[in-house]
Write a structure and sequence with these properties.
heterodimer, A: 73 residues, alpha+beta, two-stranded antiparallel ribbon, 3 helices, 34% helix, B: 189 residues, 5-stranded parallel sheet, 10 helices, 41% helix, 20% strand, globular
């Protein structure tokens, strides 16, 4: 969760390593509830995150995305 | 904390977590009914997917697919069924437990060309230009050196090959409390 990139950074990193034709194929809001149902997060951290994220940002904290790209020939 | 220290801690947390993962109902939100129908029942509750990269990558018969962070094997199995007996799928996962579980599910699903090897996303145990397709699902975000993971994907896919990555992004970075942003387990998930 804390280590996730922004979509823009994700795309930029793909370009930086050499990929071309980078396209975001799917983009869907991924809010605090979805992010914190991740099993790798301990309960106390989940509680803290859910409690402290401002209400206006709860549903637009992140995105779930699918990106495609191609290695140039 | 340095990247390498984070890396060590997040990998330790992932290794611990996979020993007691709770059942998940995410698969039914992500995969198509046709895909769900060919997956073993037990596997469906082991998915923590954020997207359907195999559907976007559309592996073709005879192709070689690499699944970075293959977990319990959902995407590898779907890819193996798509590439058929003339193709090949290699799932790479951090833990031996997940590789073993995925191998069992692949056998159950009849995905005979899928094999699973233990390895790190940041250092894939695969040759250069050896894949037609690379997929990954909810993995880049749980690695510390993300550019390195993407560079590894670039290294193993052949020129003209394609990748499809599903993941979550954090668009309101300053919304998370500092304690969460600096906690190693929040980097592992």
């Amino acid at each position: 969760m804390a280590g996730a990139l922004t979509e823009r950074a994700f795309v930029a990193n793909l370009a930086r390593v050499g990929f071309a034709d980078i396209r975001v194929r799917h983009r869907e809001p991924w809010g605090i509830e979805e992010m914190t149902r991740n099993p790798y997060l301990p309960a106390e951290l989940v509680a803290l995150a859910r409690q402290r994220v401002p209400a206006e940002l709860r549903d637009r904290l992140g995105l779930r995305i699918v990106i495609t790209a191609r290695k140039p020939t | 904390m340095t990247d390498l220290q984070y890396r060590k801690q997040t990998q330790a947390m992932i290794r611990d977590a996979v020993r007691g993962l709770p059942a998940s109902d995410v698969a039914h939100e992500i995969y198509t009914p046709e895909q769900l129908a060919v997956l073993p029942e037990g596997l469906l509750t082991s998915s923590y997917a954020t997207g359907n990269p195999v559907a976007w990558a559309s592996p073709r018969p005879g192709e070689t697919v690499v699944d970075i962070g293959s977990g319990a094997g959902v995407d590898s199995i779907l890819a193996a069924l798509a590439v058929g007996v003339t193709g090949r799928v290699v799932g790479v996962d951090l833990t031996a437990e997940m590789c073993q579980a995925a191998s069992g599910y692949a056998a159950e699903a009849g995905a005979v060309t899928a094999r699973f090897v233990q390895g790190e996303a940041e250092s894939l145990p695969l040759a250069d230009d050896s894949a037609d397709v690379v997929v990954s699902n909810s993995v880049v975000s749980v690695t510390v050196r993300k550019t390195r993971v993407l560079a590894e994907a670039y290294r193993v896919v052949r020129p003209g090959g394609r990748i499809a990555l599903a993941d979550m992004t954090l668009e309101a970075e300053d919304a998370l409390p500092a304690e969460v942003l600096s906690h190693p387990s929040a980097w592992a998930g």
